[in-house]
Design a protein that fits this description.
Elements: H1 6-17, H2 29-39, H3 44-57, H4 61-65, H5 69-73, H6 82-99, H7 106-109, H8 117-126, H9 138-147, H10 156-166, H11 172-185, H12 204-209
Helix pairs in contact: 1-11, 2-3, 9-11
Organism: Flavobacterium ponti
GO molecular function: class I DNA-(apurinic or apyrimidinic site) endonuclease activity
Enzyme class: lyase
C-alpha cells in the first residue's frame, strides 16, 4: 500500500467510529482523568463499576485532595495495582488543587503520576483538544501490525511514533480510538471477524488469509 493512500484507505474506519465516546463512562474531565489512571492494566467495564461509589465519596478534585491515599485505596480494592494507583491519584489531586487548573496538553498531563502518553491522548481526544499524538492501547498494538502499518512490536510508545510518521496529522485525533474500537469489536485476538471489517481490502492480514 502506498504511503499517500493511508488517509483515504482508513477513512471508512474513521467514519464508522468518529465522535464515539471512549468506553469509560464519565461526566467531566475530573472523572475522566481519575478513571484513565484507574484503568491501566484493568478493564474499562470494571472501572465503570468502581466509579459509582468512588465519585459518590469524591465528587470533585477538592474532596479528593482532602482525603488520603489510604482512604482512597479502600474504594478501589477491586482495581489492579490499587495501592500504587491510590498514591498516584492522591498526588495528582493535590497538585491540581494547588494549581487550580486541570492540565489540557500532553506535556503537562504526562507529568502526572499514572498518566502515560496513551492516557493523555485519550483525555485530549475526549475533551476535543488539539491532537498531540495518537492513542495506542493494547487493541491498537494488535490491530495495526495486522493491517500492515507497523511491525509486530509490543511497545506502545514505539507504535505511536511509527503511526505519527505514517499517518497525516488531520486524522490523529480519531484514528487511534477507531483502531481501538476495531480491535474491541472485530479484529479480536482469536478468530477476527474480517468479513465485517470496513477496511479489510487494505489489510495485509486479510489479504494473506484470503
Amino acid at each position: 500500500m502506498l504511503f499517500n493512500n493511508w488517509k483515504e484507505n482508513l477513512q471508512p474506519l474513521i467514519n464508522k467510529y468518529k465522535d464515539k465516546k471512549h468506553p469509560l463512562v464519565y461526566d467531566n474531565l475530573y472523572e475522566l482523568l481519575i478513571m484513565v489512571i484507574l484503568s491501566a492494566q484493568d478493564s474499562d467495564a470494571n472501572i465503570n463499576k468502581v466509579k459509582v461509589n468512588f465519585f459518590e465519596k469524591y465528587p470533585n478534585i477538592t474532596s479528593l485532595s482532602k482525603s488520603s491515599s489510604g482512604e482512597i485505596s479502600s474504594y478501589i480494592t477491586s482495581v489492579k495495582n490499587y495501592s500504587n494507583k491510590s498514591n498516584w491519584i492522591f498526588e495528582t489531586a493535590s497538585i491540581i488543587q494547588i494549581n487550580k487548573n486541570f492540565p489540557t496538553n500532553l506535556d503537562d498531563l504526562i507529568k502526572l503520576k499514572g498518566v502515560g502518553r496513551k492516557s493523555a491522548n485519550v483525555i485530549l481526544r475526549e475533551m476535543n483538544k488539539k491532537a498531540e499524538g495518537i492513542i495506542v492501547d493494547l487493541h491498537v498494538i494488535r490491530v495495526v501490525p495486522r493491517i500492515g502499518l507497523t511491525p509486530e512490536i509490543k511497545d506502545g510508545n514505539k507504535i505511536e511514533k511509527l503511526l505519527m510518521q505514517q499517518l497525516p496529522y488531520e486524522i490523529w485525533n480519531e484514528i487511534g480510538m477507531a483502531f481501538s474500537f476495531l480491535g474491541r469489536e472485530i479484529c479480536r485476538p482469536k478468530n477476527p471477524k474480517c468479513d465485517l471489517c470496513s477496511i479489510n481490502i487494505h489489510c495485509q492480514y486479510f489479504q494473506q488469509k484470503s
